Amino acid sequence: MLALLAENWWAFVLRGIFAILFGIGAVSFPNLTVVVLVVLFGFYCLVDGFTSLVLAFEAESKGWYVLGGLVSLAAGVIAFMRPGLTAIAVLIVIGLWAIVRGVIEIVTAIQIRKEVAGEWMLAAAGIISVLFGLFVVARPGQGALAVIWLIALFALIFGFLEIGAGFKLRRLRKAGEAVVESVAQAASAEYGSAGGDQ
Q: Which of 9, 60, 169, 177 sees the fewest Cβ atoms within 10 Å?
C-alpha cells in the first residue's frame, strides 16, 4: 500500500493544489454566485475523482479508491449538469462528498500507519473533511457567505495537508530508490570482486 501511495505522490499534490486554488478563488471572490461556486467545486471533484481512480487502477485493495473516485466524479458531474441547483442542495452534495472523502483519507492513514511516520497529515485531512461535511449537512442553511468562507477555509487547510502528505510520500519513494540503488551497487561490487578473484 505504501509503495503504491509513494509511487503516486503526485496525485496528493495535484489534489492539494486544486483545493488551494479553489479556496483562494472562494476567498478572493466571496460574492460569487452559487452557480460559479458549484462549477469550481465540480471541476475540483472531477480532478479528485480522476486521481482516485488512477490510484485504484494500481492498488491491490481497490475498494476505497474506487468508491472515492466514483463519489467525486458523481459530485462533479452533478455540479456541471445541474449548476442551478439551490444553495442548500449544493451544500448537501458538498457535505456528503466531504464525509466520504474524509473517511477514505482516515482509512488510508490507518492502513499505512505502521509503514510510515507522519501519516497524521492524511488522517488530519480526513478528520477535517468529515467534520466539515457533518457541519454542512447538519446546517445547510447557515447563509451563503458564511458557508463560502467555511468552504474556502476547508479547501485551504485540506489542500496544504494533501500537499504535505504528497511530498512526504515523494521523500519516502526517493529514499526507497536510494536503498535499492545502494544494494545494487554493493551487489555489483561484490560480483565484480568475486569475478576478479577467479
A: 60
**d(Cα 155, Cα 157) in Å, to the nearest integer?**
6
184, three cell numbers:
545494487
Distance CA 163, CA 8 (A): 12
C-alpha cell at 71: 463519489
pLDDT at 77 over 70: yes
Comparing CA positions, the residue from 55, 141, 136, 58 lying closest to residue 97 is: 136
* Residue 197 neighbours by CB under 8 Å, 6+ apart: none
Task: Provide the residue ranges of all domains of the chain, joining segments of one domain with +.
Answer: 2-168
Distance CA 46, CA 64 (A): 17
Is residue 126 within 8 Å of 102, Cβ to Cβ?
Answer: yes
- Which uninterrupted H or E stretch holds 184? helix 144-197
Spatial neighbors of 84 by CB under 8 A, at least 6 apart, are 35
Count of CA atoms in the C-beta half-sphere (13 A) of 164: 15
CA 88, CA 141: separation in Å to the nearest integer? 6
Rg (CA), the chain: 21
CATH number assigned to the domain covering 2-168:
1.25.40
Would you call 62 helix, strand, or coil by DSSP? Answer: coil
Burial class (CB in 10 A: 0-12, 13-18, 19+), 141: exposed
Mean pLDDT estimate for the chain: 81
